Amino acid sequence: MPYDLYYWPSIQGRGEFVRLALEDAGAPYRDVCRLRGVSAMDRFLGKQAFACPFLVAGKLVIPQTANILYYLGARLGLAPKGENERLRLHGLQLTIADWLTEVHDTHHPIAASLYYEEQKSAARQRAAIFLDERLPKYMAYFERAADERFSYVHLSLFQMIEGLRYAFPHAMHRAERKYKKLLRLVDRVAARPRLAAYLASERRIPLNQQGIFRRYAELDQA
Amino acid sequence: MPYDLYYWPSIQGRGEFVRLALEDAGAPYRDVCRLRGVSAMDRFLGKQAFACPFLVAGKLVIPQTANILYYLGARLGLAPKGENERLRLHGLQLTIADWLTEVHDTHHPIAASLYYEEQKSAARQRAAIFLDERLPKYMAYFERAADERFSYVHLSLFQMIEGLRYAFPHAMHRAERKYKKLLRLVDRVAARPRLAAYLASERRIPLNQQGIFRRYAELDQA
Questions:
Q1: Is the Cβ–Cβ distance between B29 and B2 less than 8 Å?
Q2: Cβ A95–B62 below 8 Å, yes or no?
Q3: Burial, B21: exposed, middle or buried (Cβ in 10 Å; 0-12, 13-18, 19+)?
Q4: Positions of E strands within chain A
Q5: pLDDT for the residue B176
Q6: A121 pLDDT above the threshold of 90
Q7: Could you tell me which chain B residue has the CA closest to the CA of A111?
Q8: HSE of A1 in the Cβ direction (CA atoms, 13 Å)?
Q9: Are strands A3-6 and A29-31 parallel, antiparallel or unpaired?
């Protein structure tokens, strides 16, 4: 029985963290909204899920990206089965979720419901402090995880770095020297056979200006 | 062996969600930084935990509030033992975590490292949209969970409502009519014997202007 993933069909966004795990494991899944449109989510939203992504596995509806990965990890061979190690990896994944929210808020510090142009001045302030204070703190923290035994957390770190390179090419270029292991992780993950096939396929939606990672020149000073 | 909770000793903050579970269950625990100061966290921060709160249970170090509650829930009798139901409750808890971050960002939309006064105008905008769009969405979502079988999620909903009443008394007063079950939940939780004893004790740190829930008259129009 394939897994059903529900997420916006035109962006990588939070759903991509789940797609990477399913693809790397070669798990059978349907990206439901890409097949049937976003209205397929309606019967779940506000009920079993506050927002997307959510995963449907038989009768089980699992909301929240990190929760989905906690569930899938051990089942797909992307995490050990012992509870202690699963909790540890989940703690890392939840910290990635926090990091991702901070990235989102660099371009939408006031409200997701307003346009970027309506919150540009606040975005400039928030992005500058994010790049100065928060990015190095997260990078340093995950630098130590880069070398660990492979797990779904590494797929998510790959996605974070790829996204950050898209959104903040100048800042990330400056980071290359300091966080070598973390940045080298990207090549290692991208070379995994099933993942490489996925990244080269049309199933991989390109990063774009509607997603969580967005490139605005004024937020990333050279 | 008592649990060791590490969190800031002078605010409720995220740590309070863990304290409520430990107190309601009558579990033996030490609030380590209140006994030994915040430097007790140093050997864990940036290593096993990116930030506090984290819980130490024997050799296990568990970071992230929702992760801690996932771990404690079934052990303390505050969640069923079946995996499906644990994942469902965890999904709710992670949504509470998102809600809490949005509450925090109403007064600190630009950066946690700046004073409120330095981001007051952005805070005013963010708080207005939060109260108009996001608060009703979260309240409506959790209104349906209020009646469910008691779990640690209800303790966290109690904390959210108490905090929101402190921060936004006018907005919450207007919400009383619409989200009756959720708001009634507060009284039911507060009447649980062990929790009532905790709330009346000096262990319960009062809500204050250094925490996540803060009252600024200009963010909560009458």
A1: yes
A2: no
A3: buried
A4: 3-6, 29-31, 54-57, 60-63
A5: 83
A6: yes
A7: B126
A8: 7
A9: parallel
Question: Which distant-in-sequence residues (6+ apart) come within 8 Å of A68 by Cβ?
Answer: A18, A53, A54, A55, A62
> In chain A, what residues touch B46 (CB-CB under 8 Å)?
140-141
Q: Tell me, what's the pLDDT at B124?
A: 98
The pair of three-digit structure tokens given for residue A15, joined into one six-digit string: 């759903």
Q: Which of A55, A66, A18 is nearest to B90 (CA)?
A: A66
Q: Do B62 and A87 touch (CB under 8 A)?
A: yes
Strand partners, B63: B54
Closest of B25, B196, B172, B148 to residue A47, by C-alpha: B148
Q: Is A77 left (phi over 0), alpha (psi -120 to 50) or beta?
A: left
- Angstrom CA distances, B23 to A45, B68, B160, stand at 33, 14, 17
DSSP A140-177: HHHHTTTTSSP-HHHHHHHHHHHHHHHH-HHHHHHHTT
CATH code linked to domain B83-192:
1.20.1050.10
Contacts of A144 in chain B (CB under 8 A): 47
**Domain residue limits, chain B:** 83-192
Q: DSSP label at B207?
A: P
What value of ipTM does the predicted structure carry?
Answer: 0.97
Tell me whether the omega of the peptide bond preceding residue A9 falls within 30 degrees of 0, making it cis: no
Which residues of chain B does A52 touch, with a Cβ-Cβ cutoff of 8 Å?
Answer: none
| Angstrom distance (rounded) from CA B108 to CA B140 | 25
Closest CA to A90 of A147, A18, A153: A153
Q: Is the pTM of this model over 0.90?
A: yes
